[in-house]
Write a structure and sequence with these properties.
By secondary structure, the chain is of the alpha/beta class. It has one domain (11-307): TIM Barrel. It has twelve helices and 13 strands. An eight-stranded parallel sheet has the order 2-3-4-5-6-7-8-9. The longest helix has 16 residues, at 149-164. It starts with a strand and ends with a strand. It binds N-carbamoyl-L-aspartate and zinc ion. Zinc ion is lined by residues 15, 17, 41, 247, 249.
Length: 344
């Protein structure tokens, strides 16, 4: 008989963009409804590079999301990042991890890292104090085909980082390829990966289905079907190296539907329902709780959440648009029917 409901330990989102100002106020409640904690990406303009900026941003998030939600802040790494400041913020709880954006790789990454050698002193310190490195794993070399940028990053950069920092915890964020799934599975226990719902549901055909589809555009860009299947297999494998990270990345309609549209999919409103659908399709419902609520916390060395949530069988139609910041956002799965619903 078909499963009618599933109750799991309250989950966390290990990769999230909440933005700031009116957008933050509009999107934060969707995440707080589903997740106890989230790793907050620091790619604001200007990026979050100081203890003071991280603390102030955390307070704005807390005000928008409510007291029952815990934002876990991250520091944006630049070529000039000071190891002392990194350690100070980690010691006083301003941030739990640091994010490596190769300069120019994605939204608001212009002040990112030009050469990973420049941040070796910071990485030495992070390794020493047990602070995880979160990686946007794409090279920015314009000579490299956009669909190959993750695989080439693994060869050119990540392999060396894992070799040179054997004690550093590294999360390869939002993996999209067979190459990444295999690399992480075969790497030491210090290396893990987050997986988004869109990379489990969609392949690159979604970008061109009957015309150009800006709402399916995110970075790393969707890949071919064989890669999607490898990422799905990793997600439902039960391996503690793979865990939930939505990469929910809201951009208003005008910014998406443009001659130069922004990358990012806003998946926060139905994130759990979306992931659960994948685990059900794969016949691995029993592995959903560990992926959503255990592997990430264990990797970060944080306690598991105490509360529980339930998802129930229900036909739910996802809205085409949700209001935000004087305009609107297209949620992931807009206009589709999902067969699960978070119980209130
Ligand atoms: C993210 C954003 O908009 O901030 N966009 C995206 O497509 N994922 C940045 C990122 O995580 O690469
Ligand atoms: Zn992201």
């Amino acid at each position: 008989m078909e499963t009618q409901s599933i109750t799991i330990r309250r989950p966390d989102d290990w990769h999230l963009h909440l933005r700031d100002g009116e957008m933050l106020k509009a999107v934060a409640p969707y995440t707080a409804r589903q997740f106890a904690r989230a790793i907050i990406m620091p790619n604001l303009t200007p990026p979050v590079t100081t203890v003071a900026a991280a603390v102030a941003y955390r307070e704005r998030i807390q005000a928008a999301a409510g007291a029952h939600f815990t934002p876990l802040m991250t520091r944006y790494l630049t070529d000039q990042a000071s190891a002392d400041e990194l350690e100070r913020g980690h010691a006083n709880g301003a941030w739990v991890a640091a994010k490596l954006y190769p300069a120019g790789a994605t939204t608001n990454s212009a002040s990112g890292v030009i050469d990973v050698r420049n941040i070796y002193p910071s990485l030495e310190r992070m390794q020493a104090i047990g602070m995880p490195l979160l990686v946007h794993g794409e090279v920015t070399d314009p000579e490299i085909d956009i669909f190959d940028r993750e695989a080439v990053f693994i060869d050119r950069v990540l392999t060396g980082l894992v070799r040179d920092f054997p004690g550093l915890k590294i999360v390869l964020e939002h993996i999209t390829t067979t190459d990444a799934a295999q690399f992480v599975a075969g790497a030491p226990a210090t290396v893990a990966a987050t997986i988004t719902p869109q990379h489990l549901h969609l392949n690159r055909n979604a970008l061109f289905a009957g015309g150009l589809r800006p709402h399916a555009y995110c970075l790393p860009v969707l890949k071919r079907e064989a890669h999607r299947l490898a990422v799905r297999a990793a997600a439902v494998s039960g391996s503690p190296k793979f865990f939930l990270g939505t990469d929910s990345a809201p951009h208003l309609r005008e910014a998406k539907e443009s001659g130069c549209g922004c990358a990012g999919i806003f998946n926060a409103p139905y994130a759990l329902e979306s992931y659960l659908t994948v685990f059900e399709q794969e016949g691995e419902l029993d592995r959903f709780e560990a992926f959503a609520s255990e592997h990430g916390a264990n990797f970060y060395g944080l306690p598991l959440n105490e509360g529980r949530i339930a998802l129930e069988r229900a036909e739910v139609e996802v809205a085409e648009w949700l209001p935000a910041a004087g305009s609107k956002l297209a949620p992931f799965h807009a206009g589709e029917r999902l067969r699960w619903q978070l119980a209130s």
